[in-house]
Design brief:
2 helices, mainly alpha, 82 residues
Length: 82
């Protein structure tokens, strides 16, 4: 069922909740991409190298992009010195 969009009476709270859920979504997407990295590595270790490099490249690219988005959502500067 689709109904009218609800509007919040507390926009500041909604923003922080949305950011929290955005962070969870980015974390889950990064985890899924890392799972694909693991699958590509496992295929290579099991002697099934066909297409592994291309799959690995795409999965690593996706994982890195999602981790960068996660850092941005939670306000972590990855360029900052440790």
């Amino acid at each position: 069922l689709v109904g009218p969009a609800r509007t919040s009476v507390a926009p500041a709270r909604t923003t922080s909740v949305t950011s929290g859920w955005d962070a969870v979504a980015e974390f889950l997407a990064a985890s899924e991409a890392m799972g694909r990295v693991g699958a590509a590595l496992t295929d290579g270790a099991a002697g099934r190298p066909e297409g592994r490099k291309a799959e690995l490249r795409v999965a690593l690219h996706d994982a890195m992009a999602r981790l960068q988005r996660l850092a941005r959502v939670v306000g972590v500067d990855l360029q900052e010195a440790r």
